[in-house]
Design goal:
Shape: rod-shaped
Structural class: mainly alpha
Largest sheet: none
Number of helices: 1
Order of helices and strands: H
Helix content: over 70%
Length: 107
């Protein structure tokens, strides 16, 4: 009976040892995977920062182009409004020579 008890106790110890070894392996694998993920994310972040830095001058350039185009459109619109006012004012003067002025053009 004593041998049987020793045998069961030994199997139990081996079982516990096996569980501890599996636990260490799993923890080790988890740590390795965690480091792989951290490394992957660091690399992705570096790549993103590099891409951002390389594209930033392009965006600044595009913004400047848009700003210049908007200024040009504003000036063209003002010029067209001024020409329209001159044309309307000219018609009013021509009409007023023969009759009472009917135009009210604000400058």
């Amino acid at each position: 009976m004593h041998e049987w008890f020793n045998k069961i106790q030994k199997e139990h110890e081996n079982f516990l040892l096996s569980i501890k070894m599996h636990k260490r392996e799993l923890e080790s694998n988890i740590d390795k995977r965690r480091e792989e993920i951290k490394s992957y994310l660091r690399d992705k972040e570096k790549a993103f920062e590099l891409e951002k830095r390389s594209e930033l001058p392009h965006f600044v350039s595009l913004r400047e182009k848009v700003k210049k185009r908007v200024e040009k459109v504003v000036l063209t619109k003002k010029k067209l409004n001024d020409e329209k006012k001159k044309e309307v004012y000219g018609k009013c003067i021509t009409t007023s020579r023969w009759s009472k002025p009917i135009c009210n053009v604000s400058k």
